[in-house]
Amino acid sequence: MKVTFFGVGYVGLVQAAILADVGHHVVCVDVDQEKVDNLKKGIIPIYEPDLTPIVIENYQNGRLNFTTDAKSGVNHGEIQFIAVGTPPDEDGSADLQYVLAVAEMIATHMQGPKIIIDKSTVPVGTADKVSARVAEVLTSRGVSYAFNVVSNPEFLKEGSAVADCRRPDRIVVGTDSDTVADVLRELYAPFNRNHDRLIVMDIRSAELTKYAANCMLATKISFMNEIANLAERLGADIEAVRLGIGSDSRIGYQFIYPGCGYGGSCFPKDVQALIRTADAIGYQPEVLKSVEAVNYRQKEKLFAMISDHFSGELVGKTFALWGLSFKPNTDDMREAPSRVLMESLWAAGAKVQAYDPEAMQECQRIYGSRSDLALMETAEAALCDVDALVIVTEWQHFRAMDFDLIGDSMSEPVIFDGRNLYEPSRMRKHGITYYSIGRSM
Ligand code: UGA
């Protein structure tokens, strides 16, 4: 099938590449000429495992192409995906200007019927706005081509986006047309094997499903962080509690890891956007507001622990920081707990020696060069002459600790672990003062 994507961000690029990989003919349109030129050369703007070879191979075999020319993009696809960003407005609501600009572009250039798919995470009611905008432009052109607007949210995770796209848990299709549902069934047939993963529903329910999924996951995390904070004060161990409750299949083991708060481009933005949606219709979303409040507090937790340990005397102290990205296997630092921590440490007069396997360039881009931030070549180098080690992101190779190195680099070894990577008893055995989340020392 012939498919067009508007927007080669995370969602657009990955989904476009995977659709091309199974045989569809995909054209990606983006306003950023440099990004388009780079993609043609095989330079991918994001760090995502396994993505680069798929993009290169499908560009070379002609099934995946990139352009800034909206007109040729619109003419190419019977299916037009809108996968542009919906950044938060000043008040936290999703800003729809890019989505609606694409709707306008499609309507301006279309010469026949189109299926227009909202792939971006958009508030309930957006499909109606897209429809209205397309109809308006068609009327002003004096033409009347048939079109359908579909909600087909994306559920991929950064760091495992390729695998998530190839083996989706579900494919949610919001449409009021059986014919359109059949076209999407055909589009996604290569991913819909073994059992039917396509869930067809009305458009508004599909739009709400995306927010509900992310908000439910964020709720699980904030709930666990709340219980962790209680466990710590009650002399219990959250890791034992986690196993104890996860074994109940109604609760499950996934997404109940306590930590130093959730980050990324999705959970913080989507929880906030759903709160704004609720506010706008006069409904008080008590759970969602608490999920957000608990997360803000949790992101400040590492700094509070550090400050307590050093009795507030942080001026001139240096901290090794392992992990800058909001989670492993990505270079993304959007809403990352590391940023809240570093900014608090700097404000208190401390210095940071940071190491991250992928996000150092991104950190440099965000903060530039500053005398209280040193980006180190290795995790070991970051430990040189520091007052304590702080673990913010659970990259795999942080899991095996070199206790000799810790002993050598700090006269009184202290670790603040925001991800519970180590056993407190082993730390005690090695003479390390060890703070973690939800476990009394
Ligand atoms: C999230 C969802 O998991 C995807 O299903 C969704 O499609 C995506 O948002 C989106 O809307 O585009 P992502 O933001 O890539 O994906 O990252 P997650 O793996 O969900 O992690 C989010 C944050 O939660 C991270 O900061 C992570 O450290 C934290 N987390 C996760 C915990 O603190 N505890 C957990 O048990 C799990």
General description of the model:
With about 450 residues, the chain is an alpha/beta fold. It has 3 domains: about 200 residues, NAD(P)-binding Rossmann-like Domain (Rossmann fold); about 90 residues, N-(1-d-carboxylethyl)-l-norvaline Dehydrogenase, domain 2 (Orthogonal Bundle); about 140 residues, NAD(P)-binding Rossmann-like Domain (Rossmann fold). Helix content is about 45%, strand content about 15%. The chain contains 17 helices and 14 strands. The protein has a 6-stranded parallel beta sheet, sandwiched between helices. It has a 6-stranded parallel beta sheet with strand order 11-10-9-12-13-14. Helix 6 links the parallel strand 5 and strand 6. Helix 11 runs antiparallel to helix 12. It is elongated and about 75 Å long. It starts with a strand and ends in a 6-residue tail after the last strand. Uridine-5'-diphosphate-glucuronic acid binds next to helix 9. The site of uridine-5'-diphosphate-glucuronic acid has 20 residues, from helix 9.
Keywords:
3 domains, N-(1-d-carboxylethyl)-l-norvaline Dehydrogenase, domain 2, 44% helix, 6-stranded parallel beta sheet, alpha/beta, Rossmann fold, binds uridine-5'-diphosphate-glucuronic acid, 441 residues
Q: Stretches where pLDDT falls below 50 for ≥5 residues?
A: none
Mean pLDDT: 96
- The CATH class assignment of the largest domain is Alpha Beta
Helicity, as a percent range: 40-55%
End-to-end gap: 59 Å
What's the architecture of the largest domain in CATH terms?
3-Layer(aba) Sandwich
Number of domains: 3
- Assembly status: single chain
| CA-atom Rg in angstroms | 24 Å
Major sheet attributes: 6 strands, parallel
Form type? elongated
Q: Strand percentage, roughly? A: 5-15%
Tell me how many strands there are: 14
Number of helices: 17
Strands of the biggest beta sheet: in what spatial order? 3-2-1-4-5-6
Structural class determined from secondary elements = alpha/beta
CATH homologous superfamily annotation of the largest domain: NAD(P)-binding Rossmann-like Domain
